[in-house]
Amino acid sequence: GGFQVFIPLRYQHDFVDMKDGKVRNKLQARTTMATGAEALKTFAVSRLLFDNVPHVKVFWVMHGVQTAQLALQHGADDMDGSVVEYKITHDADDFGTPNKLGREDLLDLIRDAGFRPVERNTRYEILREYPGPDADRRESPQPMRV
């Protein structure tokens, strides 16, 4: 029993009024979204504090692909997000986060961060293992995807 995973989610303070389609932001005057550095600190501290939770997941759609890649080096061991179009947090944030990535895009993100991607089920049982980072690709710095 117990928890399988902890997922630090980025606070989204905007919402769209369904009546007129306009963005309403009641808290923006008093709050701000976490920066990438603050998010990475959250992942690192989460890994330390939740030592009894086996996995820390980064939701790339909410944090963006650059922060998601870095989160893998700051305590996260699982990257998740829709492989098809995802509009909820994409429409709410103002950071230009992509709302879709293909399987190969996700595999490249993980490899470019220096890790070997694996496909797993909800119980964290490995279903498929993919090749690790490409040494030739790692010799020259790869641009972070935006």
From TrEMBL:
Stretches for region Disordered: 127-146
PANTHER family xrefs: AMINODEOXYFUTALOSINE SYNTHASE, FO SYNTHASE (COFH)
GO MF: 4 iron, 4 sulfur cluster binding; 7,8-didemethyl-8-hydroxy-5-deazariboflavin synthase activity
Cofactor (UniProt): [4Fe-4S] cluster
Species whose genome carries this gene: Streptomyces sp. SID7499
Ranges for domain CofH/MqnC-like C-terminal: 2-127
Pfam families, sorted: CofH_C
Keyword tags: 4Fe-4S, Iron, Iron-sulfur, Metal-binding
Taxon lineage: Bacteria, Bacillati, Actinomycetota, Actinomycetes, Kitasatosporales
Protein's UniProt name: Aminofutalosine synthase MqnE
Domain of life: Bacteria
